[in-house]
Each structure stands twice: as structure tokens, then as C-alpha cells.
Specification:
SMI1/KNR4-like, TATA-Binding Protein, six-stranded antiparallel β-sheet, 211 residues, alpha+beta, globular, 6 helices, 31% helix
């Protein structure tokens, strides 16, 4: 069964889609079969993601979360995610006792230089929001802006996580990401309804391009 990180993942998915059900996670038997094949336990924060929300289609609309039976070890890392053009890969240490290990990325699985990002429990929901900002029925993005301006826009928003290059925020039916771009950031937003989208654009008070 899913552990202590699962409720946080489900709450982010529910904010995005309106619901999170047991059908959105992989069966326990699939995860246990992967662990038996690999010969070690998947770290709890990553394991909980698979069990709670790993099967949702959002995990395949941009970057691809590898299903449990595709998980592989490369250069001492358990690789679980690939970029949509197979340029980047993400993984966690193969040998770790940490329940919530740091995710690292690489450009080359065979001759790997791994760059550390953030802990699983921050990285995974942040990526879910990153995908949702373009996947939701109504979405848009701003021009590049100073970091201070973006911080003002998301002040008071619940944090949903972060990666090495973006921060994510979510409210029911609304998702915002703040992504590094040039010397500033770009803000992306997605909503379930047109009404929420228009309200969010009005709340922000900056130009937003419809995606």
C-alpha cells in the first residue's frame, strides 16, 4: 500500500483534474514485481508516486514516466523518467537508505554526469504541474519577467513542489509554474474552466498569451 507521501501527490492531482482515485496508481503487485526484478526496494517517495498517481495520463503527455516494468539501473542510478525527445533522463541513487532521495538528471545514460536537483517529494508533483500547465483545457504563458514580479504574482499560492528549473503552485482547478528563462522567468498557467482562466489572468494583471 502507498505510504506517507501518497496523500500529497493525490492532492496535487486532484487540484489539477478534480479527482484522484486508486485507478490513477499502479497496482502494488506491479511495483513489487519491479522491486523483485531489480533486487532492491524503490525509495518510498518514488514508490508512493507510482502507487498513487503514476498511471495517470499526465505522466505521458510530455516527459515519460517509465512504468514499473521498464525501470532500469544506469551508472548507479535507478532511472524512472525520460524527456519527451529522449535528451534528458532522471533518476535516484541505486544504493540509498533515504526515503526521499534527491533526483538527479543526465544527458547520457551510458557515460553519465549526473546533476542534482531536489528531493523526490518536491520534484514529482512539480513535474505533474509542469505538464498540466500545458495539458489543462485552458492554458497560457507570460513574456519573460523579473523574478521579483513572479514572486508577487504567486504570493499566497500553495506550493506544489519544485525542480531545478521551475517552481509549481496549485489551487483547485488552477495550476501555475514559474520557469527559469534567460535572465528572468516565464509564468505558465492552466485551468479547468474558462471562467477560472479569465479570473486568473485578471488576478495576475499581466499580459498572458493563450496557448
Amino acid at each position: 500500500m502507498a505510504g506517507r507521501f501518497a496523500d500529497g501527490y493525490r492532492s496535487v492531482l486532484a487540484a489539477i483534474t478534480g479527482r484522484a482515485s486508486s485507478a490513477h496508481g499502479f497496482p502494488l503487485r506491479a511495483v513489487e514485481a519491479a522491486e523483485a526484478r531489480l533486487g532492491f526496494a524503490i525509495p518510498e517517495a518514488l514508490r508512493d508516486y507510482y502507487l498513487s498517481v503514476g498511471r495517470h495520463e499526465l505522466n505521458r503527455v510530455h516527459n515519460r514516466l517509465w512504468p514499473p516494468d521498464d525501470l532500469e539501473v544506469h551508472e548507479g542510478r535507478l532511472v524512472f523518467l525520460e524527456e519527451n525527445q529522449c535528451v534528458l533522463y532522471w533518476g535516484v541513487p541505486r544504493r540509498t537508505s533515504a526515503a526521499d532521495p534527491v533526483v538527479s538528471q543526465t544527458f547520457d545514460l551510458d557515460d553519465a554526469e549526473w546533476m542534482r536537483e531536489v528531493r523526490c517529494s518536491l520534484f514529482l508533483p512539480a513535474m505533474l504541474c509542469y505538464y498540466a500547465a500545458s495539458w489543462m483545457p485552458h492554458s497560457g504563458y507570460t513574456d519573460e519577467m523579473p523574478h521579483a514580479t513572479a514572486r508577487r504574482l504567486v504570493r499566497g499560492w500553495p506550493s506544489a513542489g519544485r525542480s531545478g528549473v521551475h517552481s509549481a503552485f496549485a489551487r483547485p482547478g488552477q495550476v501555475v509554474t514559474v520557469e527559469e528563462a534567460g535572465s528572468g522567468v516565464v509564468v505558465r498557467l492552466g485551468t479547468r474552466s474558462r471562467r477560472d482562466f479569465d479570473a486568473l489572468v485578471s488576478e495576475f494583471g499581466v499580459g498572458v498569451h493563450a496557448a
